[in-house]
Write the structure tokens for this entry.
Amino acid sequence: MNHRRSMRATALAVSAAIALTLTGCASQGPTSEGQEPYTLSFSYAAAEDSPEGVGATKLKELLEERTEGRISVEIYPNGSLYSQNDQMQALQSNSVQMIAASGANFTTIAPSLQILSLPFLFDSPDDVPTVIARDTAVGASIYENEDLAEKSVKVLSIWSAGMKHLGDNKEIRTPDDMEGRSYRVQSSDILVSQFDAWGAKPTVMSFSEVFTGLQQGLIDGQENTYPNMYGQSMHTVQTHITESSHGLLDMIVAVNLGFYESLPDDLRSALDETLEEVAEFNYVETAKTEEAARQAILDAGTTEIVKLTADERQQWIDAVVPDVWVEFEDVLGAELVQELLDAR
């Protein structure tokens, strides 16, 4: 294991050196108008047709047009440039300039970003833009995060990859039905506590391992969005999906702080404004993608979608709110947690 870590660290260091060399070459090759071009490499772990993939493509289209090619966006989907586990370190070293990743992936360097993992923080997808706006308590804790700044990372936008539901090989209607069953979760203390509270056995596992885990019976279930379940063919190896909408699969779009600050004011403004427009585009497109994936799963005929009654859904809520929220007030901030509870 130490040998693997050493090899991975060496690979990242070499990548960083190459990135710096290429940056140096770019600065020596100005555009025909005498303006220095910039290359923005954008890495994410999901597929090209995922919400983050669609957003990345839209960003490339708009930003290159608005800057007349002064910023060139190179897109690397499916973890093709850096794996989900490696891209955070790559971002900090400026080996890649931008990533889109769930807030759970940022918690090793900024634990308070787990706030987006709180169960039932959003009643519906329509609440997301309002709750996470820059001028809200939640938004400020993310966009102005000092822990990230110390690691040369800055959040520029928050996208939605859809609401999460529960997949299993049996019908799950209440937390009692989940008792003792193994569920894959991302590496997040809040998610672990959430599934503990529901009586399940949370199992931290990478996204790429979930299909095999379900297929081989290493796990009984998982939480994810319809697009991710369909895109990874999870619906072919699980018989039921409980439509719980218990949490948001957020996609935090972050940039290397040094790269961001190196941009001229006009290009920095163009990047900010374009990402704001892409975020609005993302919410609309994600809703379409969710519905299309849901219908595709139904059409496949392999998986039953379980719709909860209001009373059944309330049982899920009561098992984690406020207990799981309050459990993490030392990490998230007691005042922020209380403000969110008061607003319910």
The two ends are 46 Å apart (CA to CA). The first strand starts at residue 38 and ends at 44. The chain has one domain: 2-342.
